[in-house]
Amino acid sequence: MTEPRPDAPSDPCREIGSIAAGLRARLEGESRAGLAAVRRATPAEVEAAKNAPKCGMRSAECGMNGNGRLSHSALRTPHSAPDSAEAARASPEAVAGALKHELAAHVHPAVRTLDLFEFGSAEAENVNRDEALARIAAEVAVCDRCRELAASRTHTVPGQGSPHAKLVFVGEGPGEEEDRQGLAFVGRAGELLTKMIEAIALAREQVFICNIIKCRPPANRTPMPDEASNCMPYLMRQLEIIRPKVICALGGTAAKWLLQTHDGITRLRGRFYPYRGAQLMPTFHPAYVLRNYTPDTRRKVYDDLLKVKAAMDEAK
Ligand code: URA
Fold first, then answer.
1. CATH match of 122-314 with 3.40.470.10
2. CA pseudo-torsion sign 142, 144, 150, 156
3. Is 184 in the pocket of ligand 1 (CB under 6 A)?
4. Domain boundaries defined on the chain
5. Which among 85, 92, 148, 177 is placed 20 to 30 Å from 200, CA to CA?
6. What is the pLDDT of residues 147-181, one digit of tens each?
């Protein structure tokens, strides 16, 4: 399996324009669902934003500062704060709120999101987690963002487990058995995952188990970058609702898409990465362990899991 290399955006202006459109759609959806509480700009703020200077980027399509929404400077770099003058014009709360939701919804290689904000936003505090997760599963069930996957799947596989889990496992994507049952990690790799969970004195019901993508790729191929990008918003929303203390990325694909890195799993595994107030531990995928069932591989995974358990126990 080749690892996906997220492509660089060809046109940043077009890219940000499409991100903004996605953001608007998502905010409206969340607002309808009672999840988002980002206030609308006042007419005065919209006017002020219209008069703000346009950004200096190339594309003629770019009017980000002219319509009172996000500025390029707000999205340009991983940890960049919005430009203060622009933020003041568009209202700091609106810019911060929009940025936060934007980054949660669209994890793109051009926009690294690590530590920019923490899971557990005020508006997520009071949601009924069962209902919120069920709503996402319902959206996933009718999702056709990836035409090929939507056409070939038997069931979508949103993920399952405790909505209050302190620990979330994230795999790559459903396999044949998962596609048949609509449940994550129920095939051979899933059996090993169950043993891994039990090895740290937990039960499957206590954790949440899901994947980077929610539909089985044909012949279990590695998810394509556009498929992962299409599906990441669902995962981000799940994590936002569950607010785990620890996330365990199973395998290179999960680690790469969550951490937005090209580093391989062998290099990444075994240590924690701060991830929005949670700690993220990459480890080998159970399917890899099955293919390389050596004492060394098993020891490494066990060591990683012990660290996961210790971090869970330490977390308040
Ligand atoms: N492999 C995965 O990555 N996820 C599953 O759900 C099953 C196998």
1. yes
2. negative
3. yes
4. 12-113, 122-314
5. 177
6. 999 999 999 999 999 999 999 999 999 999 999 99
